[in-house]
Amino acid sequence: MGSADIVSVSNLTYRHSPDVEPSLLDVNLHIPRGSRTIIVGANGAGKSTLLQILAGKRLVSTEGAHIFVKDRDVFRDSPPGVTFLGTEWAMNPVVRGDIVVSAFLDSVGGYRHKERRDRLLDILDVDLDWHMHNISDGERRRVQLCFGLMVPWDVTVDLDVLVRDDLLNFLKADSETHATHIFDGLNNFPTHVAHMRLGSFLTPPAPWPITSTSDLVSQFAPSTTLYSVALQWLKEDRDDREELEKNGRKARGARRNETVPSDSETFYRKYDYSH
């Protein structure tokens, strides 16, 4: 019998390059089977990096780390049934070419999953006669959702767009594990919520909704909405970052101490690369 966790990660530290601070620092994560987990965190918290690693999209040194999905090592024994819906998909030149949506979906096996494909086409309001190079990024994202979900799956990561209540119901009935960035309107969707900051989990996946026995009850009232929880966590993330910036961390935003010439010729001469 397999583990009770569909996702199991321990001792995971990851750097994008050897000379930078870790994007993930000693991550330990356990997500139970059958859950729908929402990970909350500000930009740069490490959410996307973690999800890419779980999907086998980003190779890491596994020395000392254990990264398992469906009881299988994501690098040495990649598990089937894992769907990764990352935002970079819509920028891929292949999916921005002059190809009709119906032909595109058939080319990736849509005809083998006609019932699921057709249900998703209706929910997502996709026109099979669209040409991929002529549609908007939002419409291309809908095609991606249909593409990613029409094949039965066990684990879905990095689900950024849930466009209608019908799609939520479809995912809720069909899902094992999800991670998302959108909270408004999702109060009844997740079974667990988690909070990441600067590459670590401040709150590991905790059962949702909050009950009187929940690990979250010390922070929030049982009647708190998911939106309120996410908003409070994100505000705390911002306050923490501002405090770190006061203590020497590189600051974001405008450089107010820089002197910008008011004379246009002086300004443009500074950025003249023709010589």
From TrEMBL:
Region (Disordered): 241-263
Pfam families assigned: ABC_tran
SUPFAM superfamilies: P-loop containing nucleoside triphosphate hydrolases (SSF52540)
Keyword ATP-binding: yes
GO molecular-function terms, A-Z: ATP binding; ATP hydrolysis activity
Gene3D superfamilies per UniProt: P-loop containing nucleotide triphosphate hydrolases
Domain ABC transporter: 7-223
Cross-referenced InterPro entries: ABC_transporter-like_ATP-bd, P-loop_NTPase
Keyword ATP-binding: yes
Keywords: ATP-binding, Nucleotide-binding
PANTHER family: SKFA PEPTIDE EXPORT ATP-BINDING PROTEIN SKFE
Protein known as: ABC transporter domain-containing protein
Organism field: Tricholomella constricta
